[in-house]
Prior knowledge:
CATH architecture of the largest domain: 3-Layer(aba) Sandwich
CATH superfamily of the largest domain: P-loop containing nucleotide triphosphate hydrolases
CATH class of the largest domain: Alpha Beta
Radius of gyration: 19 Å
Helix content: 25-40%
Largest sheet: 6 strands, mixed
Number of helices: 10
Bound molecules: adenosine-5'-triphosphate
Shape: globular
Structural class: alpha/beta
Number of strands: 10
Amino acid sequence: MQRSAGSILEVKDLTKEFGGLRAVNGCTLEVQAGSITGLIGPNGAGKSTLFNLITGFETPDRGRILFRGEDVTGLPPHRIFQRGLCRTFQIPREHRGMTVLENLMLVPPYQIGERLWNPWLRPRAVRRQEMGIRDRALAALEMVDLVAWQDRPAGELSGGQRKLLELARTLMADPAMILLDEPGAGVNPTLMRRLTAVIQRLREERGVTFLIIEHDLDLVTRLCDTVIVMSEGATLAEGPPDAIRRDPRVVEAYLGGQYVAVEG
Ligand SMILES: Nc1ncnc2c1ncn2[C@@H]1O[C@H](COP(=O)(O)OP(=O)(O)OP(=O)(O)O)[C@@H](O)[C@H]1O
């Protein structure tokens, strides 16, 4: 089901070269607000580079990125994150000894308590803010069903649980849109169902838009309303998952003949 409310993200003629190699080559696409959009394509098609450009970790050589109608091209990652365009990240090694809850409480930028004099000059404001952050962190843990793990070190989580925690971290920023890079990789089927349910719930209850890089086409078909196919740095095709799986250009470019399109 696609509940189109116009596009939330527009990428226009985006190009990024690395030493003569055009990783992203005049890429243009739109993501509809409230959609769960899959981004697929063969290895080296430029998907991860596109994510890096959208989230400010790389600067494009050419082109524009509009988020909610505003130009965010070239903004630093934290500014883009603050605007509600978030991506998941692996829990850094040094944070794995901290509890699951603490990992979430680290996230919000510009905590009053972190400014040098505030704990002395405005102790109540700092305390209030800490309580607010704790409440938000607990709400985020509840969303991903990890409340029971709140006091355990993050390093004790399984691979799939860690992905849920990574998703919970984006929730601390009140995201309008979340970019996920291969959520299915290395996650067991039970946790994958949970992750899928959380993604659908976030879309239903909070209207969060998702753009998801994923190699598992069955997962893409189950989860996504629309699929965008990238090949050689540009958009090759776009459409509903079933149509994309049957599109001869996609079979040719993406699946390289290894995949046999199934009718039905
Ligand atoms: N920082 C970089 N320096 C040099 N080359 C890069 C850099 N980042 C990406 N590339 C190259 O750009 C091309 C696109 O890579 P990218 O990782 O974006 O593709 P991808 O579609 O995400 O691939 P995969 O599905 O294998 O992750 C590749 O040829 C890659 O080697």
